[in-house]
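Contributing: when you submit paired examples, paste them exactly as shown. First protein:
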Amino acid sequence: MKTSNLRRGALMCGAAVTMALGAPTWALAQTAGTVDELVVTGSRVSEASVAIGTDQATATVAITREALLSAPAGVTGLKMLESLPGFNVQANDALGMYEFGNSVSVRAFNFQQIGFLLDNIPMGRSDQFGGSPIYRYVDNENLLRVTASAGSGDVGLPSYASLGPIVSYLTQVPDKEFGGVVSYSRGSDNLQRTFARLDLGEHNGFSGYVSGSWIHGDLWRGPGDIDRKHYEGKLRWEIGEGAITFQTVHNDYFDYDSPSITKAQYAGTAGDLFGRSGRDFAYLGYVPVLPVTSPGITYSNTAYNQYYKQAVNSRQDHLYGLTYETPIGGALNLTLGGYYESKEGYGVSPEAYATSLTNYNNERLIIPGLFAPKGLQYGLSTVDGTRQGVTAKLTWNLGVHALSAGVWLENDDYHRTQQRYNQVGGSPDGAPLLNEPVHLQRNYTSTRDTVEFFVKDTLSLLDERLHIDLGFKSLSVDYNIQGYRNPADFIASRRPSISKTWEDNFLPQVGAVFDVNSRDQIFASYSENMALPRGADDIFSAASPAAPGPEAETSTNWEIGYRANRPTFNASIVAYQTSFENRLQAFAAVVPGSSTTETFYQNVGAVKAHGAEFSGQWKPEFLGGKVYFNSNLSYNIAEFQDNFATFAIAGKRVPDFPEWLWTGGVTFEPVEGAVFNLSARHISSRFTNFVNSEETDGYTIYNAYLDLGDGFGAGPFEQIKARVNVDNILDEDYLGTVSTTTNTPASFRPGPRRTIQFTLSAEF
């Protein structure tokens, strides 16, 4: 590291300490006489050099701990991304807790094309069924930083899901002093959350912490509740200049669903049988009395599927990680990691009597032990599996070269079943009769064996003013699915085994960072990526075994940008062009080598996006260091490049990708121990289908928080704080998450109404 960077880092650390004690940062600068070297931010704004990605060759931004702790207690790590430039995050509720209500898009990519890591442990795929979505694995209170690269993450980060974007979650190391924190939150919709963490302190190089959080609340839309129990732990043993770290996460989650609705249902023009409309459109909290549609079957009416107890989700996830870091000599550093994950869970969805009767008749003469349907069916899907892997990375500083190389190996085994069962009396409120299967739909196992390695060289030239990254990675994923993938497999008495390998041995990444001076940088990058096809299990379950598997989606990403890090402001602006090829789409076509027409997933073309992103923070001196501003602005045009089947979509906008995204906020620290923030988030209109025949309006929501007690202690507690968070202050009524379609009206999840949360915390 250059001497100037060391000096700048030391001054910034000093500034952070002073802010924590309540003294204005600008006063420190004047006293020390080093205002030219000091970057001024605020105690609730991310550290400047981290926030704008200083020294990174790609557009990399971050949320540091100070900003994370200002969010509502219990907010998911995924929803926090909405404060970063370019990330269109939609959530079904204010905390982002409901898993099937979350969506993310950035540049040309969606949630399943983004790579997520926790302390360098790859999260694999983000599917709610069988995947490892990041929001199950973190509590905000334990995070040190969330770093996101919207275009292309570093070539050394392991992921088979990413077509470029990478989001990395880094947790805290255990505190060297014994202590802890407890907090309790109450909020709208009967929300209650408790968090507790105990740091064990350091003893002969050993340190560690354990934490737990317990959250319970009602759905804001309709009957039902959410319940989550979450535990984390970390042990660290420092050995000389190296360290061994063990960490674990356990998550137990249960919730009821809420329905997606069309614009017609939202507007009340769909002729809903129960008179529902607007954003409060929900499942029923009672069993209605409906006309019988099949003689002798009391609960044969299809509308009985609107009872809320027929739509639930439950997940249990366990993750264990072990990391060993050590220097080897004076120039080499080795990092070894291993992890193991196990999961299980289930989901319930209803099936109408008429549908179940047809499926029962199709299978009853082939599969023994089936029972005729009695009414509404209990649809049970179960998931279980394990994921295990190892990572290794070696870095070597050799003159102007900083060399690194590494490997990642992973095995992912996943098992899924799906059956329909009778319920007592056929009633939607009857207990499930798991000894009376009506028909079978799935019982398969899928595996993914991944091998990835990378090599990278960072050259420091021109007296360390120019840094050039030259690297590449090789990725290979062997996939297999075997068993009963769909009802047709049961009917045909077949248990196919289908395999496919996706690999690319040369995926380059090139980047450069040039220091114009000690405050300004220019950066640029180019990268190529390949990813496991999104929803691979669904792809290979959609048709007969004769249908061919698709090629992997691939991408290219170009970026060029500028960063400024000044005494009273910092900013980053980047222009980009990104695309991905071999886009996947299901449609009817003749299966190659036969005359049979089937609907199966095929590679149908490309998506390209271009645009610009700005991120900045400003703390003007003329306001006495008590007020600071932050803002992100993104402009993005994402378009289809090719038609498919009979749909002329070339040149059409990709649905759910807004053209404009803006977030901004102002933070006011009037006195020591008090922080007030007001922020806004605007998303422009979005198309909702491929042919662009429908769109949903843009919206702006305002949020605020008041934090009191910073620096206040009493009795055994070093710090006692109170925080109030208000989300959607003006109670904006809008449609958020979109379930896109090809050429028909889409379905939506309404955005949550105004919510208020109170949190009291104490540290000891």
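Second protein:
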Amino acid sequence: MSLTWGQIQTWSSAGLSTYAGTVGARRDTVVKQADALQAHMTSFKGEGATADALRAKMGVAHKELMTLADDLLEIQEAVKVAMGDVSQVENAVKVAQQQASSTQCTISSAGIATCTAAGNSMSQYTRQSIEFSVNRLVGQAVELANTADTTLNARLKTVGTPGSTAKSTSTQTHDLSDEEQKKFEKMTPEERAKYWSQQSEAQKQHLCDKYPDLIGNADGVEGWARDRANRNRLPKLKQEAKDNVSTYTELLKSPWIDSNTRAYYLSELDKAEKAVKAYDAVQEQLDKGISLEDYQHGKKGDPVSLLTLQNDGARVKAAMGQGDVDHAKNVATFVPGIGTTVEGSMGDYMRQTKNLRSAAMAQGNLSARDVATVAWLGYDAPGKADLSEPQNIPGIISPFLAQSGSDRLAGFMNGMQASRDYGAGDAHMTLVGHSYGSSTSGMAATKVKYGVIDDLVLCGSPGMGTYDAKNYHVDQNHLWVSGVPKGDSVQGMGAIRGGIVGSLGKNPMDSDSGFTHLSDDATGSPKYNKDAPASKPFNFNFDNHSIYLEDGTETLQDIGRVAAGVKR
């Protein structure tokens, strides 16, 4: 039976969270009983037929207890996944209610919107259009609810059936067939998170070591595993890049190559040299902390994780975390923009995300274990805005790199949420986009599942990635923007609709953008140029464009409040 609008308005992911905790506590009790029985079995020294019969009965009871524990675990994990689904429904309901309120509509318990706006100035067509828009949002919420209900029902039906136990405790490992590897690659982040949760710890480690290229960039896999896999990949990738440097250096020595071939070799040599520098930059950051896996196993230190490492496209791409992204209550992901490269920028952005983490801890009165940050350089950002490099201009003035990057970013964010659904539970996730990265982030916010991004922050933004904030899958009360008043001409520069030129979305600094303004005060940083001209598009001054996450700024502290979940 299909659910109704009236029913889904009462749905609560918090209630499911409480129930999941209750099931977990019941399972812990069963496991303790099984352990106690195992201890009695081990210590029992009786002999003879009666003793053997008693041992057999104890063995049967122990097996049944462990089966019950496995079934309870599967119920708990099914409920945890449902928490994420229900959270999406809650957000979709909010979006529909906010749209109804802003357009003077009422929604009946049956889910039918009626525009109640007074006056005769509104045409019938306009009224019908408004009602259609609200009804569409109501329909989306009900559809999400029905999918969540069907999915949980199907999962619960498998509990107790052969082969249904949620997690294997086996220490044995096995390789994957070619078909299994292809299937893994094609999984959605949510499907991959479920699959991963069903593997034993030994098998997870085996997959990281045996198939690092498969696991390292797999959205939905836990952060510690991606970190382990990418650390395994790093030396090999660097050696391949160094080999390419040697190869193209030798090829260029030939006096017989034509000009086109020479240009190609030079281009490949440049790419290989930059790749070596990128891998060195990544290693430099990894050396500043311990692996996420070591941290989770009790080693002292602050974890630094390599969550993405790709060498497709124009250049090496990477995402690096600080803190425990698998367990922190608050996770903030930062996406930079124009001129961003791993080889040239990773150190700066790891420093800035460290600043953000510290600000969130201070503003939210949180410990280090409660906050994690990610510097996401996981897309081909446009090259520097430099007249000496005209090849960068098409990427800077068009939306295409942002569109492509937003697909990757949405997958990364969905994957983090999915891995948490099967792991430590939901985190407060903030997405912070800067410069062209704000447009990329805005586009990603229209593609992620509802409930994945809890807060969206854009700063120094040429455009918010869409021309209507209602397209975001984010609570409309959790959209934030910051833009310094001087020395940042990027603001609004890509807002013009032009197809190939511009089309980066509305300027989020506009009063009707749907964004709430954060502090624009960055004067506390010694890097701030107080004499820069006003921040207007095409003023062509960018002295303060990269100031937002620098120490001493109120912009950093205010974005930190958002990341800590305390900004109101």
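If you have annotations for the second protein, write them as plain sentences, like these:
The first strand starts at residue 105 and ends at 107.
The mean pLDDT is 90.
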